[in-house]
Amino acid sequence: MAAVRTPGVSGYDLGFRSVREEISGRELSVEGRFPDWLSGQYVRNGPGAFEAGGERVAHWFDGLAMLAGFSFGDGVTYTNRFLRTRAYREAASGAPTAGAFAEPAGGVLGRLRALTAEPTDNANANVVRLGGRLAAITESPVAVAVDPGTLATERVVQFEDDVGAQHTTAHPARDARRGELVGYGTRFGLRNRYELYRLPDGHTERELLGTVRVDEPAYMHDFALTERFAVLVEHPLTAAPIDFLRPEQGFIDAYEWQPERGTRFLLLDRATGDVIADPRVSSFFTFHCANAFESGDEVVIDLVAYGDASVLGGLYLADLDTSTPDASTGQLCRYRVPLDGGRVSTRTIADVGIEFPRVSPAVGTEMEPHRYVYGQGSADPDRAANELVKIDVETGEVWTWSEPGVYAGEPAFVPTPDADREDDGVVLSVLLDVDAERSALLALDGGSFQERARARTPHPLPFGFHGRYFPASGK
Ligand code: CO
Predict the structure, then answer these.
(1) How far is the CA of 253 from the centre of ligand 1 (A)?
(2) C-alpha dihedral, 237 to 243 to 247 to 248, nearest 10°
(3) DSSP annotation string for 111-126
(4) Cα separation of 123 and 92, whole Å?
């Protein structure tokens, strides 16, 4: 699926090179000017090292979790720290990374242990506030609390509550109005089910809101939240529990793409947990939703859709070390799901390759409609992640930013305080400059999409997943 190229020619392989050093509070040189109102910290999560037991891990998603933090004050200071977890210690001591995304689990007992008593704590996907602390999370039901200043690991939180899901979303959605995170997970057992939960601010116990029985659960990564509904986008990448007991394969290998099943939108009422509608459409695959909102008697969901799940297979390091993934196929699409179970309509919003779609938190966490979606773009089909894009979902207008030899990570939009325009703010993104062999924190003007400032890091950072801006005060 990907164009074969010589390692190093595109420099893409630098995004999968392990970081050897940890840096604490180093002041970065800045070109241009970051806005004075930026305060607090932008924290990103992702794999920082790609070896366990002296060998390359199989899949990008199994790199060892490392946090990178940019603090705003008089200047910009940089800190990076690996999570100090069981997974980190095992990787250092040469043990296999049991229970990971695409690694063998060490026998049937190893798989059962990974799904029950010892879920992986390699929390490399996202960062959230949890119980008033900063925490790294992934798809296993654990959270790794870190010191917000040093990013040093404090403790691994194993939830002890009503939610029994062994696999959860790495994207709990924040509802700022109600002051809670909402998420879901899959509970495997004699009766498989999806579990929807809420986690009120300041708490570390999740409250079960509802469950949906399902024969063969789907591998889902993200979902959409509106004022009244949680929307699970259940594409047909599914597994029966017995499929997990083939221990020579990884967790994700248990799932099989079954396009004849179609993709189902599960609308769950947040108040009652009831399924309000569950219409199916022609099959597509998705990692990420940009935002969702209610409009009359419909729920509108913008997400990045792929024709099938082959994008997952393209993220094995054996491929990524020698070529770039075919990243041109993910497109921002709008789905309108009627509450009465009627036909779902869809359209492609813009004809550009996009991943990591994000909206301003001023609309996203307020359960409001959005006008703009920001994302990592892929202008060249053979060269993924080589630009940043901004899309006007009403007009289809697209703004892009790119630079030769530079890759860009997920953007984060930070609104200007008291902004009266949705795109009044800055777009933060961590760049990888393959010629300079360094990374940089970039700030684009949200309106014009032109560069405002850049702060270069002492070392190159591998391609990461998700990050979040935490203002000095507030959530
Ligand atoms: Co994600």
Answers:
(1) 18
(2) -60
(3) HHHHHTT-------SE
(4) 16
The Å distance, Cα 305 to ligand 1 centre, comes to 14
SS3 of residue 441 by DSSP: strand
73: three-class secondary structure by DSSP: coil
Write the pLDDT tens digit of every residue in 266-324. Answer: 999 999 999 999 999 999 999 999 999 999 999 999 999 999 998 887 787 777 766 66
Q: For residue 383, list its beta bridge partners.
A: 380
The contacts of residue 434 (CB under 8 Å, 6+ apart) are 10, 11, 12, 14, 405, 406, 407, 460
Alpha carbon of 222 to ligand 1 centroid (Å): 7
Q: What is the mean pLDDT of residues 145-168?
A: 94
Determine the pLDDT at residue 106.
Answer: 66
Q: What is the pLDDT of residue 9?
A: 45
CB atoms within 10 A of CB 93: 9
What's the residue count for the chain?
A: 475
For residue 8, the model assigns a pLDDT of: 43
Give yes or no for a contact between 397 and 373, defined as CB atoms under 8 angstroms apart: no
The H-or-E segment that residue 157 falls in is: strand 153-158
Mean pLDDT of the region 221-227: 97
Q: Is there a contact between 60 and 327 (Cβ–Cβ < 8 Å)?
A: no
Q: Round the average pLDDT of the chain to a whole number and report it.
A: 90
Report residue 381's pLDDT band, with 50, 70 and 90 as the boundaries. low
Contacts of 460 (CB under 8 A, 6+ apart): 14, 15, 17, 19, 432, 433, 434, 437, 438, 439
Query: Which one, of 385, 356, 290, 347, lies nearest residue 125 by Cα?
Result: 356
Structure pTM?
0.94
Helices (H), 185-341: 310-313, 317-320
Ligand 1 center from residue 74 Cα (angstroms): 32
| 260 phi/psi in degrees, rounded to 5 | -65, -20
Report the C-alpha dihedral over residues 34, 35, 36, 37, rounded to 10 degrees.
-130
Residues 6+ apart with CB under 8 A from 246: 253, 254
Q: How far is the CA of 31 from the centre of ligand 1 (A)?
A: 30
CA 357 / ligand 1 centre spacing (Å):
10
Query: 84 - beta bridge partners?
Result: none
Domains of the chain: 12-470 (2.130.10)
Q: Which two tokens stand for residue 447?
A: 């309106």
Tokens at 409, concatenated: 């990570």
**E-only strand ranges, 37-132:** 41-49, 51-52, 55-56, 64-72, 76-82, 126-130
